[in-house]
Structure formats: C-alpha cells, structure tokens
Amino acid sequence: MLLSKDSSDFGISLRAGAQENDFTLYRWRLLEPIPSSVTTSRIMLRLAKAIEYLHSIGVVLHHQFASHHVFLGSDLCPRICCSCSISRSLNKECKELFSPDDNIFSFGCLFYELYSGIDTRPNHSISSRRHVVTERPSVQEIPEYAWQLIQRCCAEDPKSRPSIDEVVKEMEEWHSFSRQGWASLRALYSVLSDLGRNWRQ
C-alpha cells in the first residue's frame, strides 16, 4: 500500500519512501549528539500524530515497525516507510502481523530508543523486547512523565496500553504545559528586570 500525505495541521509527513537527505531514526540517533528531552518529545509527538492519522483511516503498521522504518529530514518531521494493511480487511492470521495494539508497543519502544540509544530488537518477541524497555537507562535521564508513558505503551497486556489518541492527547498536554511554563518564566524575568531598573534609579 502506498500512502502520501503532507499536513501542517498534523505536523507530520507520511511518504511511500524517504527523501534523498533523510536518515533513519536509528541512524540519526547514532550520528547526532544526545537529543534534548524537548527535541525527543517533539519528534515522538509528530510520529504519534502520524500513527494516529493512519489508524483513523483504518491503516495499521506491521507489528515489527521499528526505527529503520522512520526517516527524519532536516525539519525533524518523521516519514514512515513500512508495510501496512487496512485493518477492516484483515483475516485472523493477518491480524497477528498488523495490530493497532502492537503499533502502540512499537511506539513505546521507539520512544525508549530515542532517549537511550539502545536497540529494542524489533525482530524479537514482545516479551523479549519488554525485558529491554523495563530497564531504565542511565545514559540519559528520561523524564518521569515520558518514562511512565513508555511503560504504559509497552504493557504486557495489550488491553492495558493506551490508544494512539490517548497518547497524542497526553503528549500535547506536555507541550502545552511547557509553553505555559516558559511564558510564566518570561513574565517573571520581565518583572524582575523592571524591579532591577527601578532599584538602580
């Protein structure tokens, strides 16, 4: 299946293939310095919105969806190049390969990889991969809110995993809170600057 979509409303870019100067998410993580928490969450929010769009039109990614299926350009917008299928047309055997719940699990693994740089072994079983993502890495401190989301996405019981809509909503709240926090800090800085000028006068 080929799918192409560009939308500033979603903050995503989905394509059937990568562009010439794009890196896979895995390679980008190896080549770049350790990304900040803000950069990491921004990339993953865009990826979550991409998956949300796919699920909304009935498209499900392969259960081994991994970092080498995600490409990043200079704009850091994820571009997905992965086997997928229409969920409504799946028979029982195919549903084992194309499951929205498994897409959530893969998203959690990618989030973990981007923070830690540790390969979560997408070709292994879910139980084997869970053994990796439940170990909190010491390479970079993962914020508690991100760590908790990763663990919920990678829950052993698929029914305990959030939907992609819930993931997007939660991550958007992080960014909203972050913007409000910076606005408050700028306002405080302005007040302190005024007090300093008045004191010097």
Automatic annotation (TrEMBL):
SUPFAM superfamilies, A to Z: Protein kinase-like (PK-like) (SSF56112)
Domain Protein kinase residue range list: 1-178
GO molecular function, one term: ATP binding
Gene3D superfamilies: Transferase(Phosphotransferase) domain 1 (1.10.510.10)
Domain of life the protein comes from: Eukaryota
The protein's name in its UniProt record: Protein kinase domain-containing protein
Originating species: Amanita muscaria (strain Koide BX008)
